Amino acid sequence: NVDENQKFVQTEIDFIVDKSGEITQVNAVGDNSIFNRQAEIAMYLLPNKFSPAIIDKNPVRYRFKMPLSMRFD
Fold first, then answer.
1. What are the angstrom distances between the C-alpha of 71 and each of 6, 10, 35?
2. What percent of the chain has pLDDT over 90?
3. The whole model's pTM is what?
4. For labelling alongside 52, which of 15, 26, 35, 62 has CA 20 to 30 A away?
């Protein structure tokens, strides 16, 4: 259950972009477990692939981290 008095939530999302651009191993860490889980689900539901990293003209997998926050007014 979400705390109705909580006006700001944040998480850090960590995931792998594989050689084909697919997102795998998504993990969100923050104080609100519901927000963390919804952030993970949203990452898996993104309609477009990411671009893989390129080393020596070859695609490689890479780890990506990004902060995510939401404010409720």
1. 9, 9, 12
2. 71
3. 0.78
4. 35
